[in-house]
Amino acid sequence: MYLFQGGLPAKISKKNQIAKQEEDYKKSPHSFVFHRGLVGKNVKQLVNDLRHVMEPFTASHLQVRKKNVLKDFVHIAGVLNVSHFVIVTKSEVATHLKVCRLPRGPTLTFKVNNYCLSKDLVSTLKKPNMDPKQFLHHPLVVMNNFSSEQNEQKLVSSMFQNMFLSINVNKVNLNNIRRVVMLSYNPEGKTIDFRH
């Protein structure tokens, strides 16, 4: 890689380039996506789908055991630069999604009204695009109808924006953006549509 200084190209050393990539990786938001309690097969698949959404800055193969408590995840999160937890729980009444910002919050809790698994969507498509290379780069985040001055909308908007790496328009390679995460707020029902 070359950098132009005073009209002459100056070569950036490989060491500096690797160090810069490591620094950028550490600064980017990382997440753990897991479930708590007995949730069933479909909710476990939903957790796996959410991990795909959060890639590449998530623990894709995070092992969750019955004896694990939340403190175990918090302890490991500091070492691995994890900034967000996405926790899915299920009760007799409903399925809930919690989004936690580490280390001091806030925590947002949502009731999941309905969801569709990725395997169901893929089965309806004639030519599904399942290229694993599309998960090597973070998605583009699109926020819709979050323009209200209410504090809770501002909080939800900033929380979801900070879960994903921000895109520098001047430096981004458009060929790397192959996925979109869209969050659309419905003010009448006070619901959020989350699409990937």
Describe this structure in words.
The structure is a single chain. By secondary structure, the protein is an alpha/beta fold. It has one domain: Brix domain (Rossmann fold). It contains five helices and nine strands. Strand 5 and strand 6 form a beta hairpin. The two termini are 34 Å apart. The relative contact order is 0.13. The N terminus is likely disordered.
Please, what is the oligomeric state?
A: single chain
| Beta content | 25-35%
Estimate the global geometry from the Cα principal axes. Answer: globular
CATH class: Alpha Beta
Order of helices and strands: EEHEHHEEEHEHEE
The whole-angstrom Rg is: 19 Å
Structural class: alpha/beta
CATH topology: Rossmann fold
Q: Catalogue the unreliable spans.
A: 1-8
What's the number of helices?
5
> Could you tell me how far the N terminus lies from the C terminus, measured between alpha carbons in angstroms?
34 Å
Overall pLDDT? 83
E-strand count:
9
Helical content class: 25-40%
Main sheet makeup = 4 strands, mixed
Q: What's the structural domain tally?
A: 1
Q: Strands of the largest sheet, in order across it? A: 3-4-5-6
CATH superfamily: Brix domain
Describe, in short, the structure shown.
This protein has 196 residues and is of the alpha/beta class. 30% of the residues lie in helices and 28% in strands.
Which helices and strands, and how do they pair?
Layout: E1 2-5, E2 8-11, H1 14-27, E3 30-36, H2 41-54, H3 70-79, E4 82-90, E5 95-101, E6 107-112, H4 118-124, E7 140-144, H5 151-163, E8 180-186, E9 191-195
